[in-house]
């Protein structure tokens, strides 16, 4: 049986979370840091450690079958590489920014001006769509410094917390796209490796559902049970077990991780006690 060849970023912002998700789905790799390729111990997978920007071409050429990569890079390289799963990490925006004292308030206002960026193809696409003529300067890093050194009137770069923009006296005026890490697939993948990829996808979905959910246990007075159950949807429905103490029940269920803080006050107002919220490692519906 052949191995699925999966690319991850060798070093940088995606590396750690990519390795963590592989580990969480049971793919363990004995990785010497300077290794460029490693076979998994217990799954037919080989991991290739590559530069993020090189991965779309490797996918296109079929040198690797799949990759964990920023969606923004797939868009920039424009090779029609599809992805099958959003992975929920490395969330960021690709935005247009200008010096904070500038009057420009959208990409349109940069018509005839100079834009510095590491993502020229992405910017070009938006300029063409909006019929704007602007001059693009490709730079590979520290893009935010370009307006301060007189190289450009505006920039297009990745924005996450916004602190790099702030530190460089810039303001975001337009979000071109939102991005996160995705599981991308080579158009050349064969049937045997596709079957392995589908197993990986299933495992990833179980891990991501688990990460987005919490297991909640609480004690409820029976006369308030109906109200409490209304606040708590479950995978099918909550489990209710009698407590040794008369008039009380134990309620167990799964909720989305964001829901807890929204319902906690109402749970308490309805007499819920001993509320425990536990992480879920994996979830198969
Ligand atoms: N500040 C950020 N917050 C969240 N995600 C980010 C941030 N910066 C970059 N990313 C995402 O992580 C990906 C990798 O970014 P990183 O800076 O590590 O690599 P790179 O320099 O673009 O690529 P290479 O591996 O080719 O050197 C980006 O393509 C983007 O999807
Ligand atoms: O909005 P923020 O949270 O400040 O993040 C945005 C910054 O993060 C990225 O740079 P990175 O730190 O990856 O450095 P790099 O330019 O060397 O890739 C990106 O290129 C921005 O400069
Ligand atoms: Mg970076």
Order of helices and strands: EHEEHEHEEEHEEHEEHEHEEHE
Strand proportion = 25-35%
Spatial extent as radius of gyration: 24 Å
**Bound ligands:** adenosine-5'-triphosphate, 1-O-pyrophosphono-5-O-phosphono-alpha-D-ribofuranose, magnesium ion
Total of domains: 3
The level of helicity is 25-40%
Mean pLDDT: 95
Which CATH architecture of the largest domain would you pick? 3-Layer(aba) Sandwich
Low-confidence segments, given as residue ranges, are none
The number of distinct helices, counting runs of at least 4 residues, comes to 8
Q: What's the CATH topology label of the largest domain?
A: D-Maltodextrin-Binding Protein, domain 2
Shape: flat
Count of extended strands: 15
Q: CA-to-CA gap between the ends?
A: 29 Å
Question: In CATH, what is the class of the largest domain?
Answer: Alpha Beta
Instruction: Describe the sheet with the most strands.
Output: 6 strands, mixed
Structural class: alpha/beta
- Give the strand line-up of the largest sheet: 2-3-1-4-11-5
User: What would you give as the CATH superfamily of the largest domain?
Assistant: Periplasmic binding protein-like II
